[in-house]
Write a structure and sequence with these properties.
The structure is a single chain. The chain is an alpha+beta fold. It contains five helices and 14 strands. The chain has a seven-stranded mixed beta sheet, sandwiched between helices. A four-stranded antiparallel beta sheet has the order 8-11-12-13. Strands 10-9-14 form a three-stranded antiparallel beta sheet, with no helix packed on it. It is globular. The relative contact order is 0.15.
Length: 248
């Protein structure tokens, strides 16, 4: 690895129910900032809204990153920064033009390659840590039920070998760089994210809290706070929080 601090503290398990759950429970006398929890077989992985993340043993990357930022804010932008880093590595190593789907998925040709689940741990009012869980389909070629129409893997799409160790090392290096941009409130990060978001600059339908909004909205990506921006037909700018909105 070429990182300075991310992944230098490393927890590996052959099998684990959830890397996020383990990362939230680790007790340490010192700082856990930059720690990585990796398992070769995640048996109870979770996605958004407690959806199960299906993964085969020894075929994918399932890991969690622990961060200890000073402020409890802009976590949706941190999630997207991690997602952007993964899309770059997928493109550079495997030749797959992956894109970001708001708020936390990575797709190629309409199929999901990777998903991210960001969770926070507070001690009273104090933010103790942020855990970013990442699942990346690498060698898996079969998916349960209707997932076969919704998910894919690097092996299926690239038709070439993308070693998991190299993928992980490169992903961590990219994320370490992007974390610095995020921590510095660097405007460059937002521009880079918006460039690879599905629907950016297009008129789309929006769904808020499960309900379709009337009319079309021009999707303007995200702002520095990690909020989704959309322009309606009357040219009124609307902002939406991470939990509220889906771009249809």
């Amino acid at each position: 690895m070429a990182t300075s601090w991310l992944g230098r503290s490393f927890y590996f398990f052959e099998e684990l129910p959830s890397t996020n759950s383990y990362a939230k429970k680790i007790k340490d006398m010192g700082s856990l900032h930059g720690a990585v929890v990796l398992t070769d077989h995640q048996t109870g992985g979770r996605g958004q809204y407690d959806r199960k993340w299906h993964t085969s043993a020894g075929e994918n990357l399932t890991f969690s990153l622990i961060f200890e930022p000073q402020k409890a804010e802009r976590f949706s932008l941190l999630t997207l920064a991690c997602a952007l880093s993964i899309t770059e590595v997928i493109n550079e190593m495997c030749g797959i033009p992956a894109v970001l789907k708001w708020p936390n998925d990575i797709l190629h040709d309409g199929k999901k390659l990777s998903g991210i689940l960001t969770e926070t741990l507070f001690l009273g009012n104090h933010l103790e840590r942020v855990v970013v869980g990442i699942g990346l389909n690498v060698y898996q070629t079969e998916f349960e039920g209707n997932l076969s129409d919704q998910a894919s893997s690097l092996k299926l799409e690239a038709k070439a070998d993308c070693p998991r160790e190299e993928l992980l090392a490169n992903i961590l290096q990219k994320i370490e760089y992007r974390y610095r941009l995020w921590n510095q409130h660097n405007a460059k990060l937002v521009k880079e994210i918006n460039k690879v978001m599905i629907g950016f600059g297009e008129w789309k339908s929006l769904k808020v809290n499960g309900e379709n909004l009337q009319g079309k909205y021009k999707f303007l990506g995200v702002n520095e706070a990690g909020e989704l921006l959309a322009l309606n037909k009357d040219l009124d700018l609307k902002t939406f929080a991470y939990e509220q909105v889906r771009v249809v």
